[in-house]
Design a protein that fits this description.
- This protein is mainly β.
- It has no helices and 6 strands.
- The chain has strands at 9-14, 22-29, 35-43, 49-55, 68-78, 83-92.
- The strands form 2 sheets. A 4-stranded antiparallel sheet has the order 3-2-5-6, with no helix packed on it. It has a two-stranded antiparallel sheet with strand order 1-4.
- A hairpin with a 4-residue loop joins strand 5 (68-78) and strand 6 (83-92).
- The two termini are 14 Å apart.
Length: 93
Amino acid sequence: YPNPFTTRTQFWFEHNRPGENMLVTIRIMTISGKVVKSISQTINTAGNRSCEIEWDGRDDYGDKVARGVYLYSLEIKTADGKKVRKLEKMVLL
């Protein structure tokens, strides 16, 4: 949120593991599948919604990425080894 965005966006998602540590990995890719940014963060939320992860539109080297449509993979892994992954698209204006 927001999507599309111009300078910053947050990755919001709902889950069923409140109060548990979860490793969240987000990979932002071009339409052709090239990874431009990887974000990994351990989160622990009191409720069922997470909005802790933010992206500033820069790649892994700190350079601004070009405007356009990108794919992102959101992967959540729990301490007991359960994993879920979702693929979505976003637009950088």
